[in-house]
Amino acid sequence: MKALPGALLLLACPVLAQVPVRVAPLSALTQPQRQDAPARVVNEQQPLLAARISGEVIRVLVRVGDRVAQGELLLELDCQDQQLSHRQQAAALEQLQARHPLLARRLSRARALHGQNNLSEEALDQRRSELAVLNADIKAGRAALARAELDAERCRIAAPFDAIILERLSATGTLVQAGTPLFRLQQEQGAELSVLLAPARVARITEAERLWFEFAGQVYPVRLRRVVGHINAGRTQELRLGFTQHSPLTGATGILVWQAAEPLLPANLLVRRGDRLGVMVLEQERARFVPLPDAIEGQASAIALPAATRVIIEGQFTVVDGDPVRVEDSRDDTTPAH
Prior knowledge:
Elements: H1 4-12, E1 19-25, E2 31-42, E3 48-50, E4 55-60, E5 67-68, E6 73-77, H2 80-115, H3 121-153, E7 156-158, E8 163-168, E9 175-176, E10 181-187, E11 192-197, H4 199-205, E12 210-215, E13 218-231, E14 237-243, E15 253-265, E16 271-273, E17 276-283, E18 286-291, E19 301-302, E20 310-314, E21 325-330
Parallel strand pairs: 1-21
Antiparallel strand pairs: 1-20, 2-11, 2-15, 3-10, 4-6, 4-9, 5-8, 6-7, 8-10, 11-14, 12-13, 12-15, 13-14, 15-19, 16-17, 17-18
Helix pairs in contact: 2-3
């Protein structure tokens, strides 16, 4: 009879009933997280090619839209003055060099006479000075000749790199001065992708597994080159991305797409507990609520849990955190739910 109170106590505290649920691995429920933003192909390698000397344009060999290779001749200036100057400098240098053997012999004889005490130190210094002045004149003559050669070469305007002719700013018969623009070029290899994003989205794109640009039905793989460390008036940051293979035409406007590292959980699996949204998972035969801080009602949410996590897909709205559950069925396939 003494055991009766204990038995009555057990009857007064019934065992919590296990709630029947169905579960599935997280890997079978998530889908890749695809995000996108407007983007534009830009190319800042568009220099103005200008004349380096004054002269009359006598020949233009290219037109707007032409593709040119590095070193290809684009335009020629009348080079008669430069060629004449080159010949004059060459002749002047030749005269100076012709005097060198004579002065060198004079200095040699002066040294010999000075060694025999037949020539004063002052006379020897005079011979040394004459040869030193001549050597300096020869150096100056060589520099003047090099300048004349450079001016003659500048009569021929060549492409500094592989490029497209965007503008032709001169014509045959035009008299141009040094610094006059002749062409606007666009370097073929300078295209980049520019995109403006809110700072919160910038953090996600830097962790993206894949990035690509979509334009006119084509896909162009890209990689992040730089996040510009400045927030502009629109409260966005600019990102610059380089093309890893071929690139579209400069000025093309399309969509930058990226696949985030974290997958998305469908919105129908989200549950609310208090003021938080999250997901119910199974741990040691009990339901556990995992909050998702960035979740938004009615939208798929990023989730950073192990792929093998067992998610409650039926009964998740009934159970609460800590409830014992009984798994009646489970999904083991890997087809993501939509």
